[in-house]
Amino acid sequence: MAQNAKITVHPSYETGDISNRLFSAFLEPIGTIVNGTMYNPKHPTADEQGFRTDFIDALKASGLPAVRLPGGNFCSAWEWKRSIGPKEERQVALDPAWHQYITNEVGHDEYLQWAQKVGTEPLYTVNMGTGTIQDAMDLVEYTNHPGGSYWSDLRRNNGHEDPYGVKMWYLGNEMDGPWQLGAWDKNPEGYGHKVLETSKAVKWIDETIETAVCGSSAPFMEGFPAWDEAVLDKCYDVVDYVSVHHYHSAPPGDIKALLGGSLYYEDFISTEAAMIDYVASKHRSPKKVMISFDEFGCMVRPLQELHPGYGRYNMARNHYKFDPNRKYVLHDPDKMPEFQFPGGDMLHALANSSVQLALLRHADRVKIGCATSGLGIIASSNHDHVWKSASHFAYMQLLQYAKGTSMDTKVESETYDMPGYAIEDTSQYTGKEGVNYIDAASAWDKENKRLAIFAINRSEENEYPLTLDISGFEGYKPVLATSMTADDLEVKNSFGNEFICPKDVTDYTCEGGEMKLHVKPLSWNVFVFEG
Questions:
Q1: Cα 228-230-234 angle, rounded to 5 deg
Q2: Contact 456, 354 (CB under 8 A)
Q3: What CA–CA distance (Å, rounded) separates 335 from 348?
Q4: Are 291 and 276 in contact (CB under 8 A)?
Q5: For the chain, which residues make up each domain, given as ranges?
Q6: Which of 28, 110, 141, 174 is catalytic?
Q7: Catalytic entry in 121, 229, 272, 295
Protein backbone atom coordinates (compact mmCIF):
# COMPACT_ATOMS: atom_id res chain seq x y z
CA MET A 1 0.00 0.00 0.00
CA ALA A 2 1.53 3.31 -1.06
CA GLN A 3 2.03 5.77 1.79
CA ASN A 4 0.52 9.22 1.75
CA ALA A 5 2.64 11.94 0.14
CA LYS A 6 2.54 15.62 0.98
CA ILE A 7 3.66 18.86 -0.68
CA THR A 8 3.76 22.01 1.45
CA VAL A 9 4.14 25.56 0.16
CA HIS A 10 3.95 28.62 2.43
CA PRO A 11 4.02 32.28 1.37
CA SER A 12 6.72 33.09 3.95
CA TYR A 13 9.32 30.90 2.26
CA GLU A 14 10.45 32.21 -1.09
CA THR A 15 13.42 31.06 -3.17
CA GLY A 16 13.79 33.85 -5.71
CA ASP A 17 12.37 35.67 -8.72
CA ILE A 18 11.71 33.60 -11.83
CA SER A 19 13.36 35.04 -14.93
CA ASN A 20 11.29 35.12 -18.11
CA ARG A 21 14.26 33.38 -19.83
CA LEU A 22 14.17 30.33 -17.55
CA PHE A 23 12.23 28.12 -19.97
CA SER A 24 13.99 28.82 -23.24
CA ALA A 25 15.58 26.69 -25.96
CA PHE A 26 18.92 26.01 -27.64
CA LEU A 27 19.48 25.85 -31.39
CA GLU A 28 22.53 24.51 -33.25
CA PRO A 29 22.73 23.64 -36.97
CA ILE A 30 23.28 19.91 -36.43
CA GLY A 31 21.73 17.62 -39.01
CA THR A 32 18.39 18.97 -40.18
CA ILE A 33 17.26 21.31 -37.40
CA VAL A 34 18.24 24.30 -39.57
CA ASN A 35 18.32 22.72 -43.05
CA GLY A 36 14.95 21.02 -43.08
CA THR A 37 13.04 22.02 -39.96
CA MET A 38 13.70 25.76 -39.87
CA TYR A 39 14.67 26.34 -43.48
CA ASN A 40 13.27 24.59 -46.55
CA PRO A 41 12.50 26.81 -49.56
CA LYS A 42 10.60 23.93 -51.22
CA HIS A 43 8.22 23.34 -48.31
CA PRO A 44 4.55 24.24 -49.02
CA THR A 45 4.57 26.67 -46.10
CA ALA A 46 7.94 28.34 -46.90
CA ASP A 47 7.97 32.12 -46.80
CA GLU A 48 9.97 34.49 -49.02
CA GLN A 49 13.17 33.68 -47.08
CA GLY A 50 12.66 29.92 -47.26
CA PHE A 51 11.60 29.55 -43.61
CA ARG A 52 8.88 27.03 -42.80
CA THR A 53 5.96 29.03 -41.46
CA ASP A 54 4.30 25.94 -39.98
CA PHE A 55 7.31 25.67 -37.64
CA ILE A 56 7.40 29.44 -37.02
CA ASP A 57 3.67 29.56 -36.23
CA ALA A 58 3.91 26.68 -33.76
CA LEU A 59 6.80 28.30 -31.91
CA LYS A 60 5.19 31.73 -31.97
CA ALA A 61 1.96 30.35 -30.49
CA SER A 62 3.93 28.85 -27.60
CA GLY A 63 5.30 32.17 -26.38
CA LEU A 64 8.84 30.77 -26.27
CA PRO A 65 10.78 33.53 -24.50
CA ALA A 66 14.29 33.06 -25.89
CA VAL A 67 16.54 30.88 -28.06
CA ARG A 68 20.30 30.55 -27.75
CA LEU A 69 21.77 30.55 -31.27
CA PRO A 70 23.38 30.09 -33.76
CA GLY A 71 24.92 27.13 -32.01
CA GLY A 72 27.32 25.51 -29.63
CA ASN A 73 30.40 23.65 -30.92
CA PHE A 74 29.58 24.94 -34.40
CA CYS A 75 30.28 28.50 -33.29
CA SER A 76 33.92 27.90 -32.33
CA ALA A 77 34.98 27.94 -36.01
CA TRP A 78 32.09 29.83 -37.66
CA GLU A 79 33.02 33.10 -39.34
CA TRP A 80 29.87 35.19 -39.25
CA LYS A 81 31.25 37.59 -41.87
CA ARG A 82 31.04 34.80 -44.47
CA SER A 83 27.30 34.56 -43.86
CA ILE A 84 26.11 38.12 -44.61
CA GLY A 85 25.25 39.95 -47.82
CA PRO A 86 23.82 38.52 -51.05
CA LYS A 87 23.40 34.75 -50.75
CA GLU A 88 25.06 34.08 -54.09
CA GLU A 89 28.24 35.76 -52.78
CA ARG A 90 28.41 33.94 -49.45
CA GLN A 91 31.18 31.45 -48.78
CA VAL A 92 30.48 27.77 -48.18
CA ALA A 93 32.47 26.66 -45.15
CA LEU A 94 33.45 23.43 -43.44
CA ASP A 95 32.10 22.81 -39.96
CA PRO A 96 34.79 20.64 -38.32
CA ALA A 97 32.72 20.26 -35.16
CA TRP A 98 30.01 18.19 -36.88
CA HIS A 99 31.71 17.32 -40.18
CA GLN A 100 29.22 19.11 -42.37
CA TYR A 101 29.22 21.74 -45.09
CA ILE A 102 27.75 25.09 -44.00
CA THR A 103 26.27 26.83 -47.03
CA ASN A 104 25.45 29.96 -45.02
CA GLU A 105 22.09 30.25 -46.75
CA VAL A 106 20.91 30.76 -43.19
CA GLY A 107 23.41 33.31 -41.97
CA HIS A 108 23.77 35.87 -39.23
CA ASP A 109 20.93 38.10 -40.41
CA GLU A 110 18.62 35.18 -41.15
CA TYR A 111 19.03 33.71 -37.67
CA LEU A 112 18.06 37.00 -36.09
CA GLN A 113 15.24 37.67 -38.56
CA TRP A 114 13.87 34.16 -37.94
CA ALA A 115 13.87 34.90 -34.21
CA GLN A 116 11.93 38.09 -34.90
CA LYS A 117 9.35 36.12 -36.86
CA VAL A 118 9.00 33.62 -34.02
CA GLY A 119 8.70 36.47 -31.54
CA THR A 120 11.50 35.16 -29.36
CA GLU A 121 14.63 36.79 -27.93
CA PRO A 122 17.92 35.69 -29.54
CA LEU A 123 20.72 34.82 -27.12
CA TYR A 124 23.82 34.99 -29.32
CA THR A 125 26.94 32.80 -29.08
CA VAL A 126 30.23 34.40 -30.17
CA ASN A 127 33.16 32.48 -31.69
CA MET A 128 35.85 32.53 -29.00
CA GLY A 129 37.68 29.53 -30.41
CA THR A 130 39.17 30.71 -33.71
CA GLY A 131 37.57 34.16 -33.38
CA THR A 132 39.32 37.30 -32.20
CA ILE A 133 38.34 40.18 -29.94
CA GLN A 134 38.03 42.35 -33.05
CA ASP A 135 35.63 39.84 -34.64
CA ALA A 136 33.40 40.08 -31.59
CA MET A 137 33.52 43.87 -31.63
CA ASP A 138 32.62 43.97 -35.33
CA LEU A 139 29.78 41.51 -34.69
CA VAL A 140 28.19 43.61 -31.95
CA GLU A 141 28.68 46.79 -34.00
CA TYR A 142 27.03 45.21 -37.07
CA THR A 143 24.17 43.83 -34.97
CA ASN A 144 23.36 46.58 -32.50
CA HIS A 145 24.85 49.95 -33.52
CA PRO A 146 22.27 52.30 -35.13
CA GLY A 147 24.46 53.54 -37.98
CA GLY A 148 27.27 55.84 -38.99
CA SER A 149 30.04 53.22 -38.76
CA TYR A 150 31.31 50.74 -41.33
CA TRP A 151 29.71 47.61 -39.87
CA SER A 152 26.42 49.19 -38.85
CA ASP A 153 26.04 50.83 -42.26
CA LEU A 154 26.83 47.49 -43.91
CA ARG A 155 23.91 45.97 -42.01
CA ARG A 156 21.68 48.74 -43.29
CA ASN A 157 22.94 48.19 -46.84
CA ASN A 158 22.17 44.48 -46.41
CA GLY A 159 18.52 45.33 -45.86
CA HIS A 160 18.08 45.74 -42.11
CA GLU A 161 17.83 49.43 -41.32
CA ASP A 162 17.21 49.12 -37.60
CA PRO A 163 19.64 47.52 -35.15
CA TYR A 164 18.66 44.05 -33.94
CA GLY A 165 19.17 45.00 -30.31
CA VAL A 166 20.53 41.65 -29.15
CA LYS A 167 20.94 41.91 -25.37
CA MET A 168 22.57 38.61 -24.39
CA TRP A 169 25.98 37.50 -25.71
CA TYR A 170 27.76 34.23 -24.86
CA LEU A 171 31.51 34.65 -25.13
CA GLY A 172 32.34 31.20 -26.39
CA ASN A 173 30.93 27.72 -26.07
CA GLU A 174 32.28 24.92 -23.84
CA MET A 175 35.77 26.39 -23.91
CA ASP A 176 36.96 23.87 -21.28
CA GLY A 177 36.29 21.01 -23.71
CA PRO A 178 39.15 19.50 -25.75
CA TRP A 179 36.58 18.67 -28.43
CA GLN A 180 36.20 22.44 -29.00
CA LEU A 181 38.22 24.20 -31.69
CA GLY A 182 40.40 26.78 -30.00
CA ALA A 183 39.77 25.14 -26.62
CA TRP A 184 41.16 26.67 -23.43
CA ASP A 185 41.07 23.55 -21.26
CA LYS A 186 44.82 23.82 -20.59
CA ASN A 187 44.77 27.57 -19.99
CA PRO A 188 41.74 28.81 -18.05
CA GLU A 189 43.50 32.03 -17.08
CA GLY A 190 44.14 32.79 -20.75
CA TYR A 191 40.50 32.30 -21.62
CA GLY A 192 39.40 34.38 -18.63
CA HIS A 193 41.67 37.22 -19.73
CA LYS A 194 40.35 37.04 -23.32
CA VAL A 195 36.79 37.24 -21.97
CA LEU A 196 37.78 40.18 -19.77
CA GLU A 197 39.00 42.14 -22.78
CA THR A 198 36.20 41.02 -25.10
CA SER A 199 33.38 41.73 -22.66
CA LYS A 200 34.87 45.13 -21.88
CA ALA A 201 35.17 45.96 -25.57
CA VAL A 202 31.68 44.87 -26.65
CA LYS A 203 30.06 46.61 -23.69
CA TRP A 204 31.81 49.82 -24.67
CA ILE A 205 30.15 49.42 -28.10
CA ASP A 206 26.73 48.73 -26.55
CA GLU A 207 26.54 49.37 -22.83
CA THR A 208 23.05 47.85 -22.55
CA ILE A 209 24.15 44.27 -23.27
CA GLU A 210 24.87 41.33 -20.96
CA THR A 211 27.64 38.75 -21.39
CA ALA A 212 28.25 35.20 -20.24
CA VAL A 213 31.55 33.39 -19.71
CA CYS A 214 31.85 29.63 -20.15
CA GLY A 215 31.92 27.48 -17.05
CA SER A 216 32.20 23.70 -17.11
CA SER A 217 30.65 21.68 -19.91
CA ALA A 218 29.62 18.99 -17.42
CA PRO A 219 30.13 18.14 -13.75
CA PHE A 220 32.42 15.30 -14.92
CA MET A 221 35.06 17.65 -16.33
CA GLU A 222 38.51 17.08 -14.84
CA GLY A 223 38.88 20.75 -13.96
CA PHE A 224 35.46 21.27 -12.39
CA PRO A 225 35.11 23.56 -10.48
CA ALA A 226 38.73 24.77 -10.33
CA TRP A 227 38.77 25.61 -14.07
CA ASP A 228 35.62 27.70 -13.65
CA GLU A 229 37.12 29.54 -10.69
CA ALA A 230 40.36 30.36 -12.54
CA VAL A 231 38.39 31.71 -15.51
CA LEU A 232 35.92 33.75 -13.50
CA ASP A 233 38.64 35.19 -11.29
CA LYS A 234 40.01 36.97 -14.38
CA CYS A 235 36.75 38.42 -15.66
CA TYR A 236 34.29 38.60 -12.75
CA ASP A 237 33.87 42.36 -12.93
CA VAL A 238 32.77 42.48 -16.59
CA VAL A 239 30.46 39.46 -17.05
CA ASP A 240 26.89 38.82 -15.91
CA TYR A 241 26.50 35.05 -16.23
CA VAL A 242 28.41 31.81 -16.08
CA SER A 243 27.28 29.40 -18.79
CA VAL A 244 27.09 25.69 -17.87
CA HIS A 245 25.91 22.55 -19.68
CA HIS A 246 25.00 19.00 -18.75
CA TYR A 247 23.40 16.00 -20.45
CA HIS A 248 22.21 13.39 -18.00
CA SER A 249 22.39 9.74 -19.06
CA ALA A 250 20.72 6.68 -17.59
CA PRO A 251 21.03 2.99 -18.53
CA PRO A 252 18.24 1.40 -20.59
CA GLY A 253 15.30 0.36 -18.45
CA ASP A 254 16.45 2.29 -15.35
CA ILE A 255 13.59 4.75 -15.02
CA LYS A 256 14.53 5.65 -11.46
CA ALA A 257 17.99 6.76 -12.59
CA LEU A 258 16.53 8.67 -15.54
CA LEU A 259 14.00 10.61 -13.49
CA GLY A 260 16.35 11.02 -10.54
CA GLY A 261 18.87 12.74 -12.77
CA SER A 262 17.61 16.16 -11.71
CA LEU A 263 19.48 15.67 -8.42
CA TYR A 264 22.80 15.77 -10.30
CA TYR A 265 21.73 19.04 -11.91
CA GLU A 266 21.03 20.45 -8.47
CA ASP A 267 24.46 19.36 -7.24
CA PHE A 268 26.03 21.05 -10.27
CA ILE A 269 24.10 24.28 -9.71
CA SER A 270 24.90 24.39 -5.99
CA THR A 271 28.62 23.87 -6.62
CA GLU A 272 28.71 26.48 -9.38
CA ALA A 273 26.85 29.01 -7.24
CA ALA A 274 29.25 28.45 -4.35
CA MET A 275 32.22 28.91 -6.71
CA ILE A 276 30.76 32.17 -8.03
CA ASP A 277 30.20 33.51 -4.54
CA TYR A 278 33.73 32.56 -3.54
CA VAL A 279 35.17 34.51 -6.47
CA ALA A 280 32.89 37.44 -5.62
CA SER A 281 34.30 37.48 -2.09
CA LYS A 282 37.85 37.46 -3.49
CA HIS A 283 36.96 40.49 -5.59
CA ARG A 284 35.21 42.19 -2.66
CA SER A 285 32.35 42.65 -5.12
CA PRO A 286 28.70 43.35 -4.27
CA LYS A 287 27.81 42.14 -7.77
CA LYS A 288 26.13 38.74 -8.08
CA VAL A 289 26.92 36.82 -11.26
CA MET A 290 24.09 34.47 -12.23
CA ILE A 291 23.96 31.05 -13.90
CA SER A 292 22.84 30.34 -17.45
CA PHE A 293 22.07 26.62 -17.85
CA ASP A 294 21.90 26.95 -21.60
CA GLU A 295 22.29 23.34 -22.73
CA PHE A 296 20.66 20.42 -20.99
CA GLY A 297 18.89 17.19 -21.69
CA CYS A 298 18.22 13.68 -20.43
CA MET A 299 18.73 10.51 -22.40
CA VAL A 300 18.98 6.75 -22.20
CA ARG A 301 22.39 5.40 -23.22
CA PRO A 302 23.67 1.83 -23.28
CA LEU A 303 26.49 1.06 -20.87
CA GLN A 304 29.88 1.25 -22.56
CA GLU A 305 33.09 -0.66 -21.94
CA LEU A 306 35.03 0.68 -18.96
CA HIS A 307 38.80 0.80 -18.60
CA PRO A 308 39.69 0.34 -14.94
CA GLY A 309 43.32 0.78 -14.00
CA TYR A 310 44.00 3.43 -16.65
CA GLY A 311 44.07 6.16 -14.05
CA ARG A 312 41.92 9.24 -14.36
CA TYR A 313 40.12 9.33 -17.67
CA ASN A 314 42.01 11.47 -20.17
CA MET A 315 39.24 13.32 -21.95
CA ALA A 316 41.66 15.24 -24.16
CA ARG A 317 43.41 12.13 -25.46
CA ASN A 318 40.04 10.53 -26.19
CA HIS A 319 39.13 13.42 -28.49
CA TYR A 320 42.42 13.56 -30.38
CA LYS A 321 41.39 10.76 -32.72
CA PHE A 322 41.17 11.03 -36.48
CA ASP A 323 39.06 8.78 -38.70
CA PRO A 324 40.32 8.74 -42.32
CA ASN A 325 36.99 7.30 -43.45
CA ARG A 326 34.86 10.10 -42.05
CA LYS A 327 33.31 12.33 -44.71
CA TYR A 328 31.79 15.79 -44.67
CA VAL A 329 28.02 15.85 -45.23
CA LEU A 330 25.89 18.39 -47.10
CA HIS A 331 22.36 18.51 -45.67
CA ASP A 332 19.70 19.08 -48.31
CA PRO A 333 16.78 20.80 -46.55
CA ASP A 334 14.29 19.08 -48.84
CA LYS A 335 15.65 15.60 -48.09
CA MET A 336 15.02 15.57 -44.37
CA PRO A 337 15.38 11.99 -43.11
CA GLU A 338 12.79 10.60 -40.74
CA PHE A 339 14.21 10.54 -37.21
CA GLN A 340 12.66 10.13 -33.80
CA PHE A 341 14.26 9.58 -30.44
CA PRO A 342 13.88 5.99 -29.25
CA GLY A 343 11.18 5.25 -26.70
CA GLY A 344 7.80 6.75 -26.15
CA ASP A 345 6.79 10.31 -25.44
CA MET A 346 5.95 10.05 -21.76
CA LEU A 347 9.39 9.29 -20.34
CA HIS A 348 10.91 12.04 -22.49
CA ALA A 349 8.34 14.47 -21.08
CA LEU A 350 9.00 13.44 -17.48
CA ALA A 351 12.79 13.46 -17.83
CA ASN A 352 12.93 16.89 -19.46
CA SER A 353 10.40 18.37 -17.06
CA SER A 354 12.25 17.01 -14.04
CA VAL A 355 15.31 19.06 -15.05
CA GLN A 356 13.16 22.13 -15.59
CA LEU A 357 11.73 21.69 -12.09
CA ALA A 358 15.29 21.60 -10.75
CA LEU A 359 16.03 24.89 -12.53
CA LEU A 360 12.82 26.36 -11.11
CA ARG A 361 13.81 25.33 -7.59
CA HIS A 362 17.07 27.28 -8.09
CA ALA A 363 15.51 30.30 -9.79
CA ASP A 364 17.36 32.60 -7.41
CA ARG A 365 20.63 31.77 -9.23
CA VAL A 366 19.61 30.17 -12.53
CA LYS A 367 18.20 32.95 -14.70
CA ILE A 368 18.46 31.32 -18.13
CA GLY A 369 17.55 27.74 -19.02
CA CYS A 370 17.80 26.51 -22.61
CA ALA A 371 16.59 22.98 -23.31
CA THR A 372 18.74 21.51 -26.07
CA SER A 373 15.72 19.81 -27.62
CA GLY A 374 13.47 22.73 -26.74
CA LEU A 375 12.41 23.61 -30.28
CA GLY A 376 11.58 19.98 -31.01
CA ILE A 377 9.74 19.69 -27.71
CA ILE A 378 7.54 22.64 -28.50
CA ALA A 379 7.07 21.75 -32.16
CA SER A 380 7.93 18.19 -33.16
CA SER A 381 8.39 17.93 -36.90
CA ASN A 382 9.29 15.84 -39.91
CA HIS A 383 9.68 16.72 -43.58
CA ASP A 384 6.00 17.53 -43.95
CA HIS A 385 4.32 18.31 -40.66
CA VAL A 386 4.53 19.81 -37.18
CA TRP A 387 2.77 18.37 -34.13
CA LYS A 388 2.73 18.40 -30.32
CA SER A 389 4.56 15.71 -28.38
CA ALA A 390 3.72 14.94 -24.76
CA SER A 391 6.73 17.05 -23.76
CA HIS A 392 5.13 20.04 -25.48
CA PHE A 393 2.23 20.13 -23.04
CA ALA A 394 4.40 20.01 -19.92
CA TYR A 395 6.65 22.72 -21.36
CA MET A 396 3.65 24.94 -22.15
CA GLN A 397 2.26 24.59 -18.63
CA LEU A 398 5.60 25.70 -17.20
CA LEU A 399 5.67 28.68 -19.56
CA GLN A 400 2.12 29.60 -18.61
CA TYR A 401 2.15 29.06 -14.86
CA ALA A 402 5.77 29.15 -13.59
CA LYS A 403 5.78 32.92 -13.17
CA GLY A 404 6.61 35.33 -10.40
CA THR A 405 8.51 33.84 -7.48
CA SER A 406 9.93 30.37 -7.04
CA MET A 407 8.79 29.00 -3.68
CA ASP A 408 10.53 26.71 -1.21
CA THR A 409 8.59 23.49 -1.87
CA LYS A 410 8.67 20.80 0.82
CA VAL A 411 8.00 17.21 -0.21
CA GLU A 412 7.28 14.24 2.04
CA SER A 413 6.96 10.92 0.25
CA GLU A 414 8.27 7.41 0.01
CA THR A 415 11.84 7.27 -1.20
CA TYR A 416 14.17 5.03 -3.16
CA ASP A 417 17.93 4.66 -3.49
CA MET A 418 19.83 5.03 -6.77
CA PRO A 419 23.02 2.93 -6.87
CA GLY A 420 26.00 4.58 -8.52
CA TYR A 421 26.68 3.67 -12.13
CA ALA A 422 28.99 4.49 -15.02
CA ILE A 423 27.72 4.91 -18.58
CA GLU A 424 31.34 5.07 -19.76
CA ASP A 425 34.68 6.27 -18.43
CA THR A 426 33.56 9.90 -18.28
CA SER A 427 29.92 9.76 -17.20
CA GLN A 428 30.18 8.23 -13.74
CA TYR A 429 27.35 8.92 -11.32
CA THR A 430 27.63 8.59 -7.58
CA GLY A 431 24.72 6.90 -5.86
CA LYS A 432 21.88 8.81 -4.24
CA GLU A 433 19.95 7.76 -1.16
CA GLY A 434 16.50 8.81 -0.12
CA VAL A 435 15.23 10.09 -3.47
CA ASN A 436 11.60 11.20 -3.18
CA TYR A 437 9.18 9.43 -5.47
CA ILE A 438 7.32 12.73 -5.65
CA ASP A 439 9.30 15.49 -7.36
CA ALA A 440 7.84 19.00 -7.08
CA ALA A 441 8.39 22.74 -7.52
CA SER A 442 6.10 25.73 -7.26
CA ALA A 443 5.66 29.34 -8.37
CA TRP A 444 3.71 32.22 -6.87
CA ASP A 445 2.51 34.97 -9.17
CA LYS A 446 1.74 37.59 -6.53
CA GLU A 447 0.46 40.18 -8.99
CA ASN A 448 -2.25 37.85 -10.25
CA LYS A 449 -2.71 36.04 -6.92
CA ARG A 450 -1.93 32.70 -8.50
CA LEU A 451 -0.02 29.76 -7.03
CA ALA A 452 1.08 26.87 -9.28
CA ILE A 453 2.43 23.54 -8.04
CA PHE A 454 4.11 21.10 -10.46
CA ALA A 455 4.57 17.47 -9.42
CA ILE A 456 6.02 14.32 -10.97
CA ASN A 457 5.35 10.84 -9.67
CA ARG A 458 8.60 8.97 -10.38
CA SER A 459 7.17 5.60 -9.32
CA GLU A 460 6.51 3.04 -12.02
CA GLU A 461 4.05 1.08 -9.85
CA ASN A 462 2.44 3.21 -7.18
CA GLU A 463 -0.43 5.65 -7.32
CA TYR A 464 0.12 7.96 -4.36
CA PRO A 465 -2.48 9.64 -2.17
CA LEU A 466 -1.23 13.25 -2.23
CA THR A 467 -1.98 16.21 0.01
CA LEU A 468 -1.18 19.74 -1.14
CA ASP A 469 -0.91 21.98 1.92
CA ILE A 470 -1.32 25.63 0.92
CA SER A 471 -3.07 26.69 4.12
CA GLY A 472 -0.77 29.70 4.39
CA PHE A 473 -2.32 31.14 1.22
CA GLU A 474 -5.53 32.32 2.81
CA GLY A 475 -8.50 32.39 0.47
CA TYR A 476 -6.75 30.56 -2.41
CA LYS A 477 -8.95 28.02 -4.20
CA PRO A 478 -8.16 25.46 -6.93
CA VAL A 479 -8.90 26.64 -10.47
CA LEU A 480 -6.96 23.98 -12.41
CA ALA A 481 -5.87 20.39 -11.78
CA THR A 482 -4.44 18.32 -14.64
CA SER A 483 -2.53 15.08 -14.98
CA MET A 484 -0.68 13.56 -17.93
CA THR A 485 0.40 9.94 -18.15
CA ALA A 486 0.47 7.04 -20.63
CA ASP A 487 -0.50 3.41 -20.11
CA ASP A 488 1.99 2.38 -22.80
CA LEU A 489 5.45 3.93 -22.41
CA GLU A 490 6.29 3.21 -26.05
CA VAL A 491 3.47 5.36 -27.42
CA LYS A 492 4.36 8.55 -29.32
CA ASN A 493 2.23 11.43 -30.42
CA SER A 494 2.30 12.13 -34.15
CA PHE A 495 0.71 14.45 -36.67
CA GLY A 496 -3.04 14.08 -36.21
CA ASN A 497 -2.60 11.87 -33.12
CA GLU A 498 -1.84 14.02 -30.11
CA PHE A 499 -3.52 11.76 -27.59
CA ILE A 500 -0.93 11.98 -24.78
CA CYS A 501 -1.87 15.30 -23.21
CA PRO A 502 -2.97 16.69 -19.83
CA LYS A 503 -6.41 15.62 -18.66
CA ASP A 504 -8.54 17.45 -16.12
CA VAL A 505 -8.57 16.00 -12.62
CA THR A 506 -11.90 16.37 -10.84
CA ASP A 507 -11.68 13.68 -8.18
CA TYR A 508 -10.25 15.75 -5.36
CA THR A 509 -11.28 17.49 -2.16
CA CYS A 510 -10.13 20.87 -0.90
CA GLU A 511 -10.86 21.96 2.66
CA GLY A 512 -8.98 24.12 5.13
CA GLY A 513 -6.24 24.91 2.63
CA GLU A 514 -5.49 21.24 1.91
CA MET A 515 -6.16 19.62 -1.44
CA LYS A 516 -6.31 15.82 -1.45
CA LEU A 517 -6.19 13.58 -4.50
CA HIS A 518 -4.27 10.67 -6.06
CA VAL A 519 -1.40 10.95 -8.55
CA LYS A 520 -0.89 8.15 -11.05
CA PRO A 521 2.41 6.32 -11.64
CA LEU A 522 4.85 8.09 -13.98
CA SER A 523 2.68 11.17 -14.28
CA TRP A 524 3.08 14.92 -14.76
CA ASN A 525 0.67 16.91 -12.60
CA VAL A 526 -0.15 20.62 -12.42
CA PHE A 527 -2.29 22.34 -9.79
CA VAL A 528 -3.20 26.03 -9.92
CA PHE A 529 -4.82 28.03 -7.12
CA GLU A 530 -6.07 31.60 -7.16
CA GLY A 531 -6.91 33.99 -4.35
A1: 110
A2: yes
A3: 26
A4: yes
A5: 24-304+313-404, 407-530
A6: 174
A7: 295
Closest CA to 215 of 324, 94, 366, 440: 366
C-alpha 445/C-alpha 441 separation (Å) is 14
Q: What pTM was estimated for this model as a whole? A: 0.97
In angstroms, rounded to a whole number, what is the distance separating the alpha carbons of residues 442 and 11?
11
User: Is there a catalytic annotation at residue 174?
Assistant: yes
CATH number of 407-530: 2.60.40.1180
Between CA 104 and CA 110 the distance in angstroms is 9
Alpha carbon 229 to its chain centroid, in Å, reads 23
Superfamily of domain 24-304+313-404: Glycosidases (3.20.20.80)
Mind listing the pLDDT tens digit of every residue in the chain (531 residues)?
A: 579 999 999 999 999 999 999 999 999 999 899 999 999 999 999 999 999 999 999 999 999 999 999 999 999 999 999 999 999 999 999 999 999 999 999 999 999 999 999 999 999 999 999 999 999 999 999 999 999 999 999 999 999 999 999 999 999 999 999 999 999 999 999 999 999 999 999 999 999 999 999 999 999 998 999 999 999 999 999 999 999 999 999 999 999 999 999 999 999 999 999 999 999 999 999 999 999 999 999 999 999 888 877 655 566 666 677 889 999 999 999 998 876 677 899 999 999 999 999 999 999 999 999 999 899 999 999 999 999 999 999 999 999 999 999 999 999 999 999 999 999 888 899 999 999 999 999 999 999 999 999 999 999 999 999 999 999 999 999 999 999 999 999 999 999 999 999 999 999 999 999 999 999 999 999 999 999
